[in-house]
């Protein structure tokens, strides 16, 4: 089936539709960066079937670039959406032109009023040796591993308490911080990490450090200044 057979499904695009599609470009970059170089991420626009690719990362896996046409699978998904309103992502296996095995998923992007305006697609190239793929998902053992501290919690209170404990440990292990500046330095670390955006933070920090909320507010005013 070709694009001409689906002209009845074309939608009239607004600036809002184009802006919404463009707002997903950063997500495409993020997904490709997270999964790695063996992953192709594509955004299609239904404004033009013949030049539907408006964003692509790692396009070498399928030989496509911005301005490439929509696929037959994309047309089938659009047709199914028009019939059923189904937008659930679909995972499937397929092959690229060079025969590479791809695991793919595609979901419909809806604009104003729920109208379909494009597709968000992810294609993982599984034809590379699996150890090579795994290597891109793991820290490089040849380089020093520097972990990033992140709190995964079910409550805001837990996030604050863990961040506070981490800040206390960091400050207390720094010999250049004297006792007089300890609380202010801890508060500054929390402030720089955005912890005081959480409502309970001021009370929990003041209680843990044994200082008043007024002192915390004073420190924050200084940091902002």
UniProtKB/TrEMBL annotation:
The protein here is known as PAS domain-containing protein
| Superkingdom of the organism of origin | Bacteria
- In this protein, which residues make up the domain named YheO-like? 24-129
- InterPro entries in the record: DauR-like, DauR-like_HTH, YheO
Enumerate the spans annotated as Transcriptional regulator DauR-like HTH domain.
164-221
| A Pfam family per the record | HTH_22
